[in-house]
Write a structure and sequence with these properties.
The chain is mainly alpha-helical. It is 70% helix and 0% strand. The chain has four helices and no strands. Helix 2 runs antiparallel to helix 4. The longest helix is centred in the last third of the chain and has 22 residues. The N and C termini lie far apart (36 Å).
Length: 70
């Protein structure tokens, strides 16, 4: 998932996707990697980076200045 795609999502959708991805990136997947049960080890890294992108953009949207009401 690219940052451009993430920026188009609403804040609620971003938090939903981040929680879903972090649930799949539990310690059990790290354990499976260490025991050699995972064939595609690069997917763990991309999963971590996706979670970081989601959280970063969510924080940017929270701290963005809101336009004044007229």
């Amino acid at each position: 998932m690219t940052s451009k795609e993430i920026r188009e999502l609403s804040p609620a959708e971003i938090t939903t996707k981040a929680s879903a991805r972090s649930a799949s990136s539990s310690s059990s997947s790290k354990l499976r990697k260490q025991t050699g049960q995972v064939e595609k080890t690069h997917e763990l890294r991309t999963l971590r980076k996706d979670i970081a992108r989601l959280e970063t953009i969510a924080n940017q949207k929270k701290s963005a200045p809101k336009p004044p009401k007229i």
